Amino acid sequence: MPFFWKPYKSDVASFIEELKAKKPTLEQEQRAGRALLWDRALDREAQAEWREAKVRQQAYVYQTQR
Hints:
Blueprint (H helix, E strand, L loop, with lengths): L10 H12 L3 H12 L6 H10 L13
């Protein structure tokens, strides 16, 4: 490997690094936004009721039952 060789950095990676340098609070804001939608406590009872109420689908949906 020659001494002047530099590792490849894609345009996307360099853009993200530049964006993080311009706005250092970006990751913190992303985590706060993620917490709004995804990081929630699950209601185990409601999930269990939903699974019990689920009706099994027929193998062929459009066939009438005899």
